[in-house]
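Posting here for the record, re: glutamine.
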Amino acid sequence: MKKVGVLALQGDFEAHRKAIERARACAVEVRTAEQMNACDGLVIPGGESTTMLKLLGIENLLDPLREFGLCRPIYGTCAGAILLACEVTNPAQSSLGLMDIGVERNAYGRQVDSHIAKIKVDDDGELEAVFIRAPIIRRVGSSARVLASHQGDPVWVEEGRHMVTTFHPELTEDPRIHRHFVEKL
Ligand code: GLN
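Prediction output follows.
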């Protein structure tokens, strides 16, 4: 069985663990480079990207994470998507730069900072998506592929081995997103 690490510095890693198990892979919590390098792929969960960046720096995990991403798949949810992007605005912030996408943080504004929506999945019907202080993907590079959109903006994107969602599939029962990631391993 493939082994998927869930970065467990901050955020909702427990829900991802369960979702990975529903997608029939083995899930382990990752807090060190050694634990990460024992995995076939990695999930960076939602949370607060600024805090996660700080913790990654403190734990000396930024370089190991970039190197991991050069040969193995990473799935970033929400704050994880912000970390994988190569451009971050509102405000600008450093990132891993592993995917050619540009994201704007907290882009839905205060009034609607959390909402649930039915989104269209390309070729695969609809999906219920939970958005929590989500970013909007403002730019998608030519080698990236949009797998689902909401209100005209991409919300599920893959590029090569990596993928991101701006919503939280670990909070619903629909296994399609995690299953898609597990198939990339
Ligand atoms: N608003 C958070 C950020 O900018 C992301 C929110 C989330 O991961 N649910 O990092």
